[in-house]
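Q: What residues go here?
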């Protein structure tokens, strides 16, 4: 077990997050309940290169008829992100959020690991209702959908977190 994987396990334990280890791999999987949706999470550690990759999945699948509008949403969203990015698997219609960090050897900051997880969950939760609007738009009406205008809808955003 690499030191980075051990630090990642420790982070999940200290945060009280329920998780599953994938046997034979340096992978942790978990499911988080967010404001809009449940968010499946996959964390893979590459110990020799000191890389942590956090991938959160949207539970909505984009039908082939709606993929261009969904791609526009993802590209417009990615332009505003500082950490990570959204991806669309064109063949399956699966939307993923991926954030990766390369750590200096033997300096695995658990705050950074937790922040990667929080960011991935928050971004998927924030995107889900916008993606849902696209998916539920009838195929014949997609030509009328203005993704830029859709993204201005504040009623689809989760509430801001309360300060502790």
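A:
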């Amino acid at each position: 077990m690499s030191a980075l994987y051990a630090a990642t396990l420790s982070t999940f334990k200290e945060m009280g997050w329920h998780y599953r280890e994938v046997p034979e791999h340096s992978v942790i999987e978990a499911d988080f309940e967010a404001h809009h949706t449940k968010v499946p999470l996959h964390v893979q550690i590459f110990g020799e290169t000191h890389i942590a990759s956090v991938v959160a999945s949207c539970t909505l699948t984009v039908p082939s008829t709606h993929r261009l509008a969904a791609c526009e949403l993802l590209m417009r969203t990615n332009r505003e992100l500082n950490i990570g990015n959204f991806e669309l698997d064109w063949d399956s219609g699966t939307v993923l959020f991926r954030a990766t960090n390369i750590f200096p050897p033997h300096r695995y900051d658990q705050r950074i690991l937790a922040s990667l997880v929080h960011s991935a969950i928050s971004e998927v939760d924030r995107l889900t209702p916008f993606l849902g609007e696209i998916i539920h738009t009838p195929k014949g009406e997609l030509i009328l959908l203005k993704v830029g205008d859709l993204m201005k809808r504040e009623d689809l955003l989760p509430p801001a977190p309360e300060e502790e």
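A: Context that may help when evaluating the design: The mean pLDDT is 92. The beta strands are 20-22, 27-33, 38-46, 51-61, 85-89, 94-102.
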